[in-house]
Amino acid sequence: MHKAPIPHALSTACAALMLALAGCAVGPTYRAPATTGTMTWHAPVPHDGQAGALQDWWAQFNDAALTRFIAWAEADSPTLTQAWASIEKARATLTTARAGSLPVLTATAGATRSGGTAATSATTRSAGLDASWELDLFGRARRNTEAASARVEAREADWHDARVSLAAEVADTYVQVRACGLLADAYERELVSVTRTEATTATMVAAGFTAPSDGALAQASLASSRSAAINQRAQCALLLKSLVYLTGHDEPELLATMADGSTAVPRPAGLAVDSVPAQVLRQRPDLASLERELAASSAEIGAAQADLYPSLSLSGAITRSLSQSLTTWSFGPALSMSLFNGGARRAAVDNANASYTSALAGYQLGVRSAVREVEQALVNLDSTALRATEAHRAAEAYRRYLDATEANWRAGTASLLSLEEARRSALSAEIDDLTLTQSQVSDWIALYKALGGGWTPGATVTTNKNGAPS
């Protein structure tokens, strides 16, 4: 006997019902991208016997001003406030997504006053309850909840990343301020020496013991030294403005805080980088954020695919007429399915797949960038350490050379030109020494940030008693 063909819509509905009875959620099952555990560093790894942990690393600087500045910055940072607001928005979205799988109950009440031409009137009062519940047959609500939950974790990781970046920026700026102050002192000492040389030379020119050209050279050297000193003070002022911007405190308070401590460039304990890249990658909150975004994109594919299938909802209502003591009720299921939508729902699936592909590429790019940042920080740190050692030796040697040349000049066995050349060489060497000392500390800070800055995977953001993130 010939059987009539089953309509496509009916067959789809039957398949949907079978899948629903099986309790399945459509869409891919997410698995985090695997990282290769055999990767090795291709850069010099520091092992100086002073390995310090990432946790509480700033305390190892033993600098009270630095610790206080970082605390000030974290307590009043618009960047962290924005990151915290993003967490709040993501959590609100998660609450909304969870509500999508729950029944909706609405209470109604009303009173109506009516009348006619016969001057009669009546009041009708009623109250009722309406309930509706869309069954999550194909996991759309579950997938949306998964996506929203992953994005909460991503925003929390973003907050930790912002916190690590802020601390590193404050510390690096503070180190530059300290180094700038030492450089300014060097220029000021040099200016004092050059001023004395110019005055002595002017006296000798006036007495006829020295050629006028030596007087002109001394004056030019004095003007150049003054310009360099002014420029260095300006650079220090600019760096101090940056600290004001980062901490939210005014200059007098910053200067008073720094005056209580040492003027030397603070130096931290070293960091041992003996983990393979795959392990280090799990320590970075920015990569955790990218991975959670990838998980959210995967869940959204399932949510989009669930829209291709029928939806089943249950609804009911109870209405009580208080005027007539009459109660009515209704209850029943409703099955709906889109028969024609111009390809919009299929396009939504394609869009979700494309978003996942983009998120995966973003994560892979983030992994490459993380490895690059760590290896570049290692190379810079190794190079700077070697150069700093040589620069310190050069500074000491040039200073001895300047002292000897100045003694010879006062004894009349060296020319003013030789003295000024020796002075410029000594100053240049001292500047290189101080600059490389500051660069070495900055490279340690860059490595600290590249390694994740002490963030622990899975760490959540909580609030203190004042409602602020902690």
TrEMBL record:
PROSITE patterns xref list: PROKAR_LIPOPROTEIN
Keywords attached to this entry: Lipoprotein, Membrane, Palmitate, Signal, Transmembrane, Transmembrane beta strand
Keyword Membrane annotated: yes
InterPro entries linked to this entry: MdtP/NodT-like (IPR010131), OMP_efflux (IPR003423)
Pfam families per UniProt: OEP (PF02321)
Cellular location(s): Cell membrane
Membrane-topology descriptor: Lipid-anchor
Keyword DNA damage appears in the UniProt entry: no
Signal peptide span: 1-25
Family: Belongs to the outer membrane factor (OMF) (TC 1.B.17) family.
NCBIfam families xrefs: outer_NodT
Protein name: Efflux transporter outer membrane subunit
